[in-house]
Structure formats: C-alpha cells, structure tokens
Amino acid sequence: MKVSILKTLKDQKGQYVSGEALSNRLGVSRTAIWKHIAALREEGHSIESSSRKGYKLLSSPDIILAEEIQAELATGVFGREMIYMDTVSSTNTVAKEKAAENYPEGTVVIANHQTAGKGRLGRKWESARGTGIWMSVILRPDITPAQAPLITIFAALAVARALEQVTGVRPGVKWPNDIVYHKAKVCGILTEMSAEIEQVNYVVVGIGINVHHNIEDYPAAIRETATSLKAVTGRRFERKTIIKNVLEQFEEVYRGTQDVKKELIEEYKKYSLTLGSMVKVTSRDSIIEGEAVEITDEGELMVRTKDGTTHTIFSGEVSVRGLYGYV
Ligand code: ADP
Q: Looking at ligand 1, which residue's alpha carbon is closest to its atom 1?
C-alpha cells in the first residue's frame, strides 16, 4: 500500500493529489492513507500536505525498494528473488548462505550498507551507507571451476554496458573486472564459488558500484583510484535504475555465454583499457612486466615480456597494475 501511494505521488510529479482521490483509487480509508504518508515521511520522503489540496511529493531519498525494482525489471530469472537488507557484513557472504539454502539461480542480495565489504585477495571494499550499490547475484552454471573466470569477465561487460546506457558516458574496463572512469574505479566485482573438481555448485558474483560519493568521502588511501557516478557526471542517479539495468544486461550476457561467446569477448575487448598497455602482473610467486597483447576467448590475459615470451594470465590470484598508473 505504502508503495502504491508513493507511486501515485511520483506519477503526479510535484502536483497535489487529494486524500480522497488516493483513498478511492486504492480502496482504503483516508485515515489509512494519512498513516502511510506519515510512514513515508519517516523514511525520508518530503511530502507537503494541505487540508484542501491533499498531498504533494517534494523529494525522495534514494531508497532501494525490492518491489519497486521488480515491478520494472525486464528479466526472466535475475532478480525475480530479491533480498534487501539495510546492513550486512558482506552481500557475498549472505548470498553464499542463501545459495547453500538452495535459493534459485538469479537470486539477488542487495544491501544499503556493508560492514565488511570484500575485494579480491582478501582486500577491503568501502561500502558506506546509502552511497552505492552493494549487491550479489547467485548463479548455478553448468560449468567446471576452470570456466568460472569467464563469468567475472562477462559481469564486467554487463556493468560496463549498463553504466554506459544509464549515464551516457562510456566507461573502460581494467582486466579482469574493474569498471573505470578517468583512471579511477567506479565498480569492483568479486566472484566466489563453491565447487567440486569437475562441477561448480554455485557462483556468487558480488558487484559494488559507487554512485553518490564525493571524492572526499573516500579514505585517503583510495582517493586517487576511486570515483563515483556523481563525481564523473555531476549528476544524481537513482540506484534502482542502475540495479535494473545491470541485472537486465547481466542476464542477457550470461545467457549468451555459450552461443555468442566470441562476440561478447570482442565487445569486452572494446571496453578494455588493459589491452595494448604495459602492465605489471603480481601473483603469489612471481611478478611479470610486459605488454598486454591479447584477451583469449576464455577471458585470459596474454602478456608479452621483453624477452619475447608470451604468458597466459588467469584472473584468479593476480593483481594487474598499469606501469603508468592504476589502469
Ligand atoms: P584490485 O584487483 O584492482 O586491487 P579489488 O577487487 O581487490 O581490486 O578491490 C579492492 C581494492 O579496491 C581495495 O584494496 C581498495 O584499494 C579499492 N577499493 C576499496 N573500496 C573501494 C570503493 N568503494 N571504490 C573503489 N575502490 C575501492
């Protein structure tokens, strides 16, 4: 009911809607309407009321409402099951628990705040309250563990497409899976899985997108390498719009993994900032410096060192940095 009232007020874009009209339209008493309006105000919506004219929505905070997103979502499977929580340790952790409880493929866990957001290789992901999209998608692909890195690559492609569509500004991708604007990271992706030797049980793809941050909101250590949609465009985007677009793109790309894999890799390469640049690849037991010369159909990075040898890099355990900066 609360959602329907909010939707009606939003549809009227700054015009008054009378209490009577709301009550007739939604089939509840005017007192009930008044109570829901009070609850919406509690949530931070600014609603003007006049005894003669009714209610007018002045502004809304950027709240994530699963029902609201689902009502507009054009997917078959992704986001059909959506779990929203205000605060979690990490959405990947919750999603892994849900996956173990047999939640279906496409289940999405979204939080407003993560207290222990995770990056790759045990790193920390800053996830301040209300500032970004902290979400994880449960997948149950019929693949071997060795094929899993491709899912990460395709998740990056989906986010790049979605951000380009929503903002109108084309991002770049730093191999394997960081989405970048002006050499700074706007989105990080962390893929975790549960698998046997031959078969994946489930994959959880965590996607963190910085939306409303001002650069000074970040800890000093990442001010040079982190950015946000607001910092890049100077505009305010609703998180639900981005969530919707990311899930739609991700489902489309994920479905195409078998049939149009080559085309998807070609599209990914067009977003790649890594390809053609000089990189330093750090893994547990080696450091390789050279030129990133190719991305294979399996999503691996090929790096040619000075002595002419070509190395194939798998995304799992490495960190890639440009020799001339972060990208
Ligand atoms: P990379 O492989 O590029 O190091 P990770 O996926 O491991 O990236 O992400 C974690 C790193 O990203 C952290 O070590 C930190 O430097 C940076 N970071 C943490 N939180 C954010 C954020 N909200 N936006 C951008 N960068 C972040």
A: 319
